[in-house]
Amino acid sequence: MTRFLGSLRMPSPRERHEWLLFVLLIGPNLALFAVFTYWPLIYNFYLSFVRWNFLRPTKPFVGLDNYANVFSSAQFWTIVTNTFVFAFFSVGLTLIIGLALALLINQPLRYRNTARAVLFSPVIMSGAVVAVVWSYIFDPRYGLIDQFLRPLGIASPNWLSDPAWAMPAVIIVYVWKNLGYAVVIYLAGLQGIPRELYEAARVDGAGPWARFWHVTLPGLSPIAFFLSVTSVLATFQAFDIIKVLTDGGPVISTTTLIYHLYTLGFVSYDAGQAGVVAVVLFMIMLVLTIIQIRYLEQRVNYG
């Protein structure tokens, strides 16, 4: 004990200054992170065990009743299915079409920069504005799609009022809005692949398809991994386009977990069940992120 105490020493003025500077620089950020991230998570978890409708001051503890009510609802499992369908097709189409467009724009085209700017412009637009514009495009009588289909003798479907077409319509709009982001990120990755690798593959007799599989895809794997993780998280939180386009309908065909959370919390004023949905949504996103990091990262080639 004496030897241990003897080994201790007072920090030097320089060390104290560095520690104080660290606290001053990092402390405010940590405090904001705790207030706006950790505390809401903890408080939401608490709300999932109480009955509260925002109008009553009391919050009686109900245990697992909120969880039982949510999980016993057949509507809830339909909403979970909607969420996964929306996420799967939105992420898949964004990554695949984004890669194809990035490969096209990466060619020595005359208007490459213009095409990149046009593709990226929807990303910076408000989701509500995008949804309003597309609601006119989807109009079955006067919309732009109807104007193309009518001369072909094809009747335009009721995109936003037919349960069979509402989800595809929402996916189309979401992909259109976010496609430019994937294209720009892919382009950055393509321009970072050394030209020497393509020259070496060409000398070895590799054709365009072989160069794509053995040079381009491995070189883009870190970009694809990043986009897949961030895109999945973003789709599970997509709200504005669904709210404006379909309001979750028709017949909850486009209601996702985040929209269900909104309706429970701010339409039905049921904070307890809304808290349950928030916990479920958080756990799904956490599990999917862990799975992606664990299994997809193994296939990433960091060069």
UniProtKB/TrEMBL annotation:
Stretches assigned to the ABC transmembrane type-1 domain: 80-292
Record's protein name: Glycerol-3-phosphate ABC transporter permease
Keyword DNA repair: no
Predominant subcellular localization, coarse grouping: membrane
Family the UniProt entry places it in: Belongs to the binding-protein-dependent transport system permease family.
Membrane topology of the entry: Multi-pass membrane protein
Gene Ontology cellular component terms for the protein in this record: plasma membrane
Keyword Transmembrane: yes
Single biological process term from Gene Ontology: transmembrane transport
Entry's transmembrane regions: 20-42, 84-105, 117-137, 165-188, 219-239, 251-269, 276-296
